[in-house]
Design a protein that fits this description.
Elements lengths: L1 H6 L8 H11 L10 H7 L1
Length: about 45
């Protein structure tokens, strides 16, 4: 895994590079959940 990251030019990145590698292998993206409309309105 680390060699693949280095080959992709990501060897200088921190542990987040490992997450992006796993995301690519799994075909998913880990992201912050979208803010729900009713939560935003309740906070106003």
């Amino acid at each position: 895994m680390l060699m693949a990251l280095m080959n992709e030019g990501k060897g200088q990145l921190d542990h987040s590079a490992i997450v992006t590698f796993i995301e690519q292998m799994a075909g998913v993206e880990i992201a912050k959940p979208a803010e729900k409309e009713h939560d935003r309105i309740a906070a106003d």
